Amino acid sequence: MMRARAQKQKSCSEEFLERAAEFHGHSGSFMVVGLRMGLEALRRLDASGWFDIRCRVELNWRPPDSCVIDGIQVSTGCTMGKRNIEVLEAEGVAAEFYKGDEHLRVVLRNEVLDRMRRTLATGEDSARLVEEIAKADPSDLFEFH
Q1: What is the pLDDT of residues 11-60, one digit of tens each?
Q2: What pTM did the predictor assign?
Q3: What is the pLDDT of residue 1?
């Protein structure tokens, strides 16, 4: 039986993005937002991942919004199979992460979500947007509560 590493990776490297894209099927902006949400939760809650963290995701549960879920699964190790991630139908994109008695709410800024939707609708350079999201300062992407 294969054992999990002691800690999940907590940075968004090119290799990490490639592994996430392989899991998800492509590298899209919504999946990368999920990666970034999960990475921030691991850092801010000082979580190892896989088993010491739980997540509740709130979004429109259909693509492309639901692609956020795959990003969170890859970054945190929370999975549907372990039942430490749940999804609620809601407007916007947000996730609440729990480690013991601690919690962190991460909300995608409306202006970022609007830009992502415009990029998809107009066929703009989505690869450039993915790169920007992967490298952006977390406070430019999210509100933390």
Answers
A1: 888 999 999 999 999 999 999 999 999 999 999 999 999 999 999 999 99
A2: 0.93
A3: 53
Task: Kindly report the average pLDDT of the chain as a whole number.
Answer: 94
Complete domains list, the chain, with CATH: 26-138 (3.30.1330.20)
Q: Say which residues have a Cβ less than 8 Å from residue 64's Cβ, sequence separation at least 6.
A: 28, 29, 30, 116, 120
Calpha distance 71→133 (Å, rounded): 13
